[in-house]
Amino acid sequence: MTRRQVVRCSQLALISITAKQVEPSALRRLRRIRRLQRDLGLDLEATAIIVRLLEQIEELEARVGRASAVRVQPVDGEPRR
Q1: Under DSSP, is residue 72 helix (H, G, I), strand (E, B) or coil?
Q2: How many domains does the chain have?
Q3: 72 pairs with which residues across the strands?
Q4: Does residue 81 contact residue 74 with C-beta atoms inside 8 Å?
């Protein structure tokens, strides 16, 4: 990914760059962006939308997983936490 593309990702609020350093989470996000662009032939704006949607899906799946792990019904029918 070029410096210009990284700056554009920052402008699109996909990553945050402080003091010319990039956080590890931003590096993971940049790799995902590059992979989507390469594999699907998308421009950066379309990739930004997809990355945000994928992250929302992952967050929702994690919430559902946590919620289903918490709700256990005992034999007597009283919910347990």
Answers
A1: strand
A2: 1
A3: 80
A4: no
Determine, yes or no, domain membership for 81.
no
| Residue 47 identity (one-letter amino acid) | T
Which residues of the chain fall short of a pLDDT of 70? Answer: 70-75, 77-81
Q: In the prediction, which pLDDT does 13 show? A: 87
Cβ atoms of residues 47 and 32 within 8 Å? no
What is the structure's pLDDT at 25? 84
What six digits make up the tokens of 49?
């939308």
CA torsion sign, 28 to 32 to 34 to 38?
positive
Residue span of the structural domain in which 30 resides: 3-70
Q: How far is CA 53 from the centre of its chain?
A: 8
Find the radius of gyration of the CA atoms of the chain.
19
